[in-house]
Specification:
The chain is mostly helical and 192 residues long. The protein is built from ten helices and no strands. The protein folds into two domains: 1-52, Homeodomain-like (Arc Repressor Mutant, subunit A, Orthogonal Bundle), CATH 1.10.10; 63-186. The chain is elongated, with a radius of gyration of 19 Å. Residues 32-51 bind DNA.
């Protein structure tokens, strides 16, 4: 990649990160292109040249956010942390995100995920293999009951994913994220 293309890509990443930061804090409606340009230290014209409209930028930010989240999980799962520490980190990350994300952005994200196949593709290509690897690691380390079939666990994960994408659910579930993650990993009896 030549210097011009490299600078262009870096500038696009800076814009996406600036927009994400503002959307997380203020939601979508209250954030203007001027605010994003200021945060990214670029002109509004530059943003329109790259993304054409605020709607296109929002769509790209959603993809950027999903990709970034999966990269973070990939790094966590590939880390040397033991299984319980990985689970605690996953719960902490989910809780932290649920407290930081603006409800308007969360609703848009969930609606966008239902309207596009991007998340499903990423989930199939990356998410499921990582879950399977994590489950195997937990079984091998003695933290997950080896009698539980991978198929049953993956089926349960699919049920959670499908239900959380329903509008009636995703509109009210954000404050319950930590509880849901704890139930998923520790059951209703909790840590023992």
């Amino acid at each position: 990649m030549d210097g011009f293309k490299k600078r262009t890509e870096m500038k696009k990443q800076t814009i996406l990160q600036a927009a994400l930061t503002l959307f997380l804090k203020h939601g979508l409606q209250k954030v203007s292109i001027a605010m994003i340009a200021n945060e990214a230290n670029v002109s509004q014209v530059t943003i329109y040249n790259y993304y054409e409209s605020k709607d296109n930028l929002i769509h790209k930010v959603i993809h950027f956010y999903i990709d970034k989240t999966y990269q973070d999980y990939e790094a966590l799962l590939e880390s040397d942390l033991d299984f319980p520490d990985k689970i605690n980190q996953i719960i902490f990350n989910k809780t932290e995100v649920s407290q930081e994300i603006h409800e308007e952005l969360y609703s848009y994200l969930m609606k966008d995920l239902n309207d596009s196949n991007y998340l499903d593709r990423i989930y199939q290509e990356k998410g499921l293999p990582y879950f399977k690897k994590l489950i195997d690691e937990g079984k091998n380390a003695g933290y997950i009951d080896p009698a539980l079939s991978e198929h049953a666990i993956m089926y349960f994960i699919q049920i959670l994913k499908d239900s959380m994408q329903k509008e009636a659910v995703y509109e009210s579930i954000l404050p319950l994220t930590e509880d849901i993650m704890n139930i998923f990993f520790y059951g209703i009896m909790g840590k023992r």
